[in-house]
Amino acid sequence: MSHHDEDDLKPTFHAGFKLGEKKTAEELANLDAEDESLAKWKASLGLGPGGVALATTSGPKVTVLSLTLTSKTLPTGKISLDLSNQAQVESYKKNPINIKEGIEYKVGITFKVNHGIISGVRYIHVVKHSGIKVDKLEQMLGSYAPSPDGSPYTKEFMEEDSPSGPIARMGTYHVRSRVIDDDGEVYTDFEWCFKLAKEW
Prior knowledge:
The chain is mainly beta. It has 2 domains: about 25-50, no CATH class; about 55-195, Coagulation Factor XIII, Chain A, domain 1. The protein contains 3 helices and 9 strands, in the order ααββαβββββββ. The longest helix is centred in the N-terminal third of the chain and has 9 residues, at about 35-45. About 20% of the residues are buried.
C-alpha cells in the first residue's frame, strides 16, 4: 500500500502494557465455571454450550463492511464507503469524496464478528496531505462476540473537526485505514481519499 509508513498503523501501547495470554473461545468458556454471574455474562457473549462464539467456523474472525462519515451539516446525514465490494474499495483510492471545511464529523465502522471473541481490536487511520502526516485517529472497538442473529455491529468514534482555509482546500488528502488487534492481526487495510470544499 502506497505512501503510508507501517509504524503509523501499528497499535499504540502505553508503558508497562503487557498482552494477556491468548485464549480460545472454548478456554474462556471454561474459566471460572462455578461463578454464576460470570457464567451469565459469558452466555451473553455466546460462550455457553452451543453458543455462536464456540461454533467452529473458518475464515476471518471479523469482516469490516463499511466506513461512514456522519455530520449534522451533511444533507444526507452520512457518507458510506462500502468495503464489501473490492472494485468499490479500489475506486476510493482514486475518487476523492468531498468533505466540507470547518465542520464537526465522526468516523464510524460497521463490522461483523464471524466466530470467536474479539478484544483489543482497534481502528486506526492516518491522513496525509502533500505527503505529510496531518492526522492520526486510533480508537478501540471493545470486546464482541458474534451477534446471536448474525447482524453486524456499528461503532462510531469521537468527533473531529475538518480543517479550513485556502491552503487546506488545496490538493487531495490520502487516508489509510486499518482494523487490527493487539496481536497484530489485521482484519482490513484499505486506502481512500478526500478533498476539502466550501460545501458538501
